[in-house]
Amino acid sequence: MCGIVGAVAQRNIVPILVEGLKRLEYRGYDSCGVAVHQDGALRRARSVSRVVELDAQVRDETITGFTGIAHTRWATHGVPAVHNAHPHFSRDSIALVHNGIIENHDELRAELKGRGYEFLSQTDTEVIAHLVHHYYEGDLFAAVKRAVLRLKGAYAIAVFCRDEPHRVVGAREGSPLIMGVGQGENFIASDAMALAGVTDQIIYLEEGDVVDLQLGKYWIEARVSAGDAQGFERVQRPVRTVHAHTGAAELGPYRHFMQKEIFEQPRAIADTLEGVEGISASLFGDQAEQVFNSIDSVLILACGTSSYAGMTAKYWLESIARIPCNVEIASEYRYRDSVPNPRQLIVTISQSGETADTMSALKHARSLGMEQTLTICNVATSAMVRECKLAYITRAGVEIGVASTKAFTTQLAGLFLLTLTLAKLRGHLDAGQEAQHLKAMRHLPVALQAVLALEPQIIAWSEDFARKQNALFLGRGLHYPIALEGALKLKEISYIHAEAYPAGELKHGPLALVDASMPVVTVAPNDTLVDKLKSNMQEVRARGGELYVFADADSRIESDAGLHVIRLPEHYGPLSPILHVVPLQLLAYHTACSRGTDVDKPRNLAKSVTVE
Question: What is the pTM of this model?
Answer without folding.
Answer: 0.80
